[in-house]
Amino acid sequence: MDEYIRGAIHGIALDTMTGADSICTLIGNEKDAAPSVNRPAAIAPRLFAIASGTRLRRGSSRQNGCRAVRIGLSLPNNWGIADVSELVSVGILADQCGFHSVWTSEHLVNVSYVRDRIGDAPYYSPLSILSALAVMTKRVQLGTSVLVLPFHSPFFIAKYFATLDHLSKGRAILGAGIGNVPEEFEAVGIPWKERGARTDEPIDIIQALWSEGPTDHQGTAWSFSDIHSSPKPYGATIPIWVGGISPAALRRTARIGRGWQAVAVAPDEFQSIYQQIAAYAIAIGRDPSEIAASMRLNVAFDGEGGTEGERKAAIEVDRADDVRTAVEAYRSAGATDMIFALNCRRPEAVKAAIGKIAHAIWPWLYDGATP
């Protein structure tokens, strides 16, 4: 981990432990608790609910006088797991253990650092994984982190996410970004320098297609009128979370984002960047409190590589205190959501890590969720 980030997040080593069958039992097993953990009486019904699958009411719980942070997991659809059904089982486990959200990543071709990481091993479609989870989970939010919007027709994305929203009964989140691999843009025939424009205009079209009634749009790449699209979202709309830390990404977040996704920044950097988003939002008449602020931390696994940026923002999860320290550091910096990215191709190690994370941050499970 980068020394700058290490100042707020302490590093430890990850090994393997039990599989999925005993993970939720581990969370509620008193004898497995670290000695330093205080378990209030109120935790008992929550632990029973996690173990039994009973749904608790999701509220705006507060921790130490502040709103509780929501905890999510980024699934390793980008790490070359051989059996795709294992990814679905990981998402189901996250739902059973009380995490607020699960996320999937996107690249269309294995080039650059993706090929260095997994070679020709599978990089599964983020949308296919979310579709499976929509009908096999009950409460967890389902999002992309992020979908490379310039690669897609806005008409397809509007229809796909509206359908996902119906399948999941209103749990879809569109996490959108502009992309970060020039070789990939060259391979799929999209001009690299146009990726910002090919993100902004599609977002406007997608939001218009989700609105009631026929849609009109006059833009640079698309112009149409009186277009009817269905289904509409299951709820009023589908939140769009914007990924990136460039000035353009921050302005995009302030303009249309219901959330912002960050990676590889220290807590003080996170706070400073979010303050910029807030300033942009206020300047255009938006309330910054409407914009969620999400930090993704990569979980470090023995024997797995990753890019320099991924290693810089990595945390090891053997000691519960270190995981809680990381969550508290970013929550104090303004994070409303923490996403732990499970960067590993070994399903049992991934499931073990989920158990360790859940064991460490049990006060935030369920209670941090959106009502």
Write the layout of secondary structure elements.
Layout: H1 3-6, H2 20-27, H3 43-52, E1 62-63, E2 66-67, E3 70-74, H4 84-96, E4 101-104, H5 112-118, H6 126-136, E5 141-144, E6 147-148, H7 154-167, E7 172-177, H8 182-188, H9 197-210, E8 215-218, E9 223-227, E10 240-243, H10 247-256, E11 259-263, H11 267-283, E12 292-299, H12 308-312, E13 314-315, H13 320-332, E14 337-342, H14 347-360
Parallel strand pairs: 3-4, 3-14, 4-5, 5-7, 6-7, 7-10, 10-11, 11-12, 12-13, 12-14
Antiparallel strand pairs: 1-2, 8-9
Helix pairs in contact: 2-14, 4-6, 4-14, 6-7, 7-9, 10-11, 13-14
Overview of the structural elements:
Helix 2 packs parallel to helix 14 (347-360), helix 7 (154-167) packs across helix 9 (197-210) and helix 10 (247-256) crosses helix 11 (267-283). A hairpin with a 2-residue loop joins strand 1 (62-63) and strand 2. The protein starts with a helix and ends in an 11-residue tail after the last helix. The chain has an 8-stranded parallel beta barrel with strand order 3-4-5-7-10-11-12-14, surrounded by 6 helices. Strands 1-2 form a two-stranded antiparallel sheet. The chain has helices at 3-6, 20-27, 43-52, 84-96, 112-118, 126-136, 154-167, 182-188, 197-210, 247-256, 267-283, 308-312, 320-332, 347-360, and strands at 62-63, 66-67, 70-74, 101-104, 141-144, 147-148, 172-177, 215-218, 223-227, 240-243, 259-263, 292-299, 314-315, 337-342. The chain is an alpha/beta fold and 371 residues long. It has one domain (3-31, 45-364): Luciferase-like domain (TIM Barrel, Alpha-Beta Barrel), CATH 3.20.20.30. The protein is built from 14 helices and 14 strands.
